[in-house]
Amino acid sequence: MHINLSVLMGLFKKNIFGQFLFFKKWIIRIAGVLSHRRYRGFNELQIEGSEILRNLPDQNVLFISNHQTYFADVMAMFHVFNAALSGRDDNIKNVGYLWNPKLNMYFVAAKETMKSGLLPKIFAYAGSISIERTWRAYGENVNRQVKMSDISNINKALNDGWVITFPQGTTTPFKPIRKGTAHIIKHYKPIVVPIVIDGFRRSFDKKGIRIKKKNILQTMEIKVPLELDYEKETIEQIVEKIEYAIEQHPSFMKVIPQEELLENEALNTKRKW
After folding, report:
1. What is the pTM of this model?
2. Which has the least CB within 10 A, 95, 145, 240, 268?
């Protein structure tokens, strides 16, 4: 029986973290098909800035975003990024754009979250850089040293492609930006692309798996890359730029309806994860 050698080699090709690209591709395809109606069907995802994605280089790009759910935010970005790279303008019509997804795309996530069940473990294969949070673990406040291997893995991923990170490290709005993100930006000098999302917290549960409400307007705005002076700007200045860019600076609080802030606070108090 004749076996095509290139097909066979493709099956066993791995990425920089030793993951088989064949499996990663199929996980993205299946997860994409299963989740598509969550953003275009049950709800409507309004996108702005697709053309910015098409003009970015293939490596050393860091996406910084506010965070609303554990998994739905990232999955939406997989849809939007791949749709834009396939030539779609601000829409995710026809899920065929996931047939050949961008495979050098990664997201920073808490190790405990990605090990919290079978679905997260499978989804982690789609591109998770699982790190140990230094300030919180299993619902408790902790004070741990940064693991250099975590920083090294983020650097490896940046050298290979695109990395998504949520610099607040929590789904609670208006929490401080973790300085680690600013250190990574200053040290590794990636192109930094801010993203602002909304509507995900109202659409899904905190994990982003269960649909909470339908017919919610979800939005994703991809902004132009930040202008940064990597040498001269301090960590504090970079942190402030991030706060404004992802609209999490305290000055943005006054434009959010009080009702929504109270609802978020009630949900945060009620839920124990």
Report:
1. 0.86
2. 145
Burial of 187-203, coded b for 16+ CB within 10 Å and e otherwise, reads ebebbbbbbbbbbbbbb
Contacts of 43 (CB under 8 A, 6+ apart): 199, 203, 214, 215, 216, 217, 218
Quick: pLDDT tens for 151-200.
Answer: 999 999 999 999 999 999 888 898 999 899 999 999 999 999 999 999 99
Task: Answer whether 22's CB lies under 8 Å from 125's CB.
Answer: no
Can you tell me the distance from the alpha carbon of 222 to that of 266, in angstroms, rounded to the nearest whole number?
29
179-188 vs 148-160: helix crossing angle, rounded to 10: 50
| Inter-helix orientation angle 21-39/72-85, to 10° | 100
Domains of the chain listed by start with CATH number: 15-270 (3.40.1130)
